[in-house]
């Protein structure tokens, strides 16, 4: 059974990765602007003073301008740093664009490294995803970093995944360790999916 789920996830991830790869630079820029505005509004709505976010890669929905703006607004932004043991360390973002290449070739911050529990104090978590289904179940890219982080938090704040509109699906293959999110932010909307998780 588990192998069937893994196979289904792998196939779906490949399809989603290919779809993202077909977007033009103009489409990516337009999506990043719209997502940034929605994230700004979400931070204001939740009165979040401390958040965690991620530095988007070229194919992910853009978060970098949002992060820079949040820092300049005086919001404390924690950015993830991958570890070999499958956990995430964190660093406080500043408003320059300096990054380094992380463990899996992902962009990571260069600031002082804080341990995994640093994220326990945030008011809002903004996470990457490959897709999210209508029940709030999130499918990541297969390494499990955010599932482990969310699953280990004693008091988890609202968690929102940033995806493209076409990546909200009716249902997703799921495994025991998969963690749901409260909602999604896409270029066209902010959608609450599982408010009971708060």
SSE blueprint:
Blueprint: H1 2-21, H2 25-45, E1 50-52, H3 64-72, E2 76-82, E3 88-92, E4 99-101, E5 107-109, E6 113-114, E7 124-128, E8 131-133, E9 138-139, H4 145-152, E10 159-162, E11 168-169, E12 183-185, E13 190-192
Parallel strand pairs: 1-2, 1-7, 7-10, 8-11, 10-12
Antiparallel strand pairs: 2-3, 3-6, 4-5, 8-9, 12-13
Helix pairs in contact: 2-3
Short description:
This protein is an alpha/beta fold and 198 residues long.
Task: Estimate what percentage of residues fall within beta strands.
Answer: 15-25%
The structural class is alpha/beta
CATH class: Alpha Beta
Largest sheet: 8 strands, mixed
Question: Which second-level CATH architecture applies?
Answer: 3-Layer(aba) Sandwich
Helix content: 25-40%
Structurally, how many domains make up the residues? 1
CATH superfamily: NagB/RpiA/CoA transferase-like
Report the C-alpha radius of gyration, rounded.
16 Å
Order of helices and strands: HHEHEEEEEEEEHEEEE
Number of DSSP E strands: 13
Kindly report how far apart the N and C termini lie: 31 Å
- Summed up, the helix count is 4
CATH topology: Rossmann fold
Overview of this protein structure:
With 198 residues, the chain is an alpha/beta fold. It has a single domain, classed as NagB/RpiA/CoA transferase-like (Rossmann fold). It contains 4 helices and 13 strands. The protein has an 8-stranded mixed beta sheet with strand order 6-3-2-1-7-10-12-13. The two termini are 31 Å apart. The mean pLDDT is 89. It comes from Microbacterium saperdae. It catalyses: (6S)-5-formyl-5,6,7,8-tetrahydrofolate + ATP = (6R)-5,10-methenyltetrahydrofolate + ADP + phosphate. Its EC number is 6.3.3.2. GO terms for molecular function: 5-formyltetrahydrofolate cyclo-ligase activity; ATP binding; metal ion binding.
């Amino acid at each position: 059974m588990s192998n069937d789920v893994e196979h289904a996830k792998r196939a779906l991830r490949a399809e989603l990765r290919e779809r993202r790869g077909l977007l033009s630079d103009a489409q990516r820029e337009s999506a990043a602007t719209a997502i940034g505005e929605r994230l700004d509004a979400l931070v204001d709505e939740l009165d979040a003073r401390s958040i965690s976010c991620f530095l988007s890669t070229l194919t992910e929905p853009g978060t970098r301008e949002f992060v820079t703006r949040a820092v300049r607004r005086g919001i404390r932004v924690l950015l993830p740093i991958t570890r070999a043991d499958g956990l995430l360390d964190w660093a406080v973002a500043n408003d320059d664009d300096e990054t380094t290449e992380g463990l899996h070739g992902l962009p990571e911050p260069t600031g002082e490294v804080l341990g995994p529990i640093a994220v326990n104090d945030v008011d809002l978590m903004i996470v990457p995803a490959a897709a999210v289904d209508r029940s709030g179940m999130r499918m990541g890219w297969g390494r499990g970093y955010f599932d482990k982080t969310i699953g280990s938090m004693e008091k988890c704040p609202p968690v929102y995944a940033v995806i493209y509109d076409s990546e909200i699906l009716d249902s997703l293959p799921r495994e025991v360790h998969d963690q749901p999110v409260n909602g999604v932010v896409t270029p066209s909307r902010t959608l609450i999916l599982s408010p009971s998780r708060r």
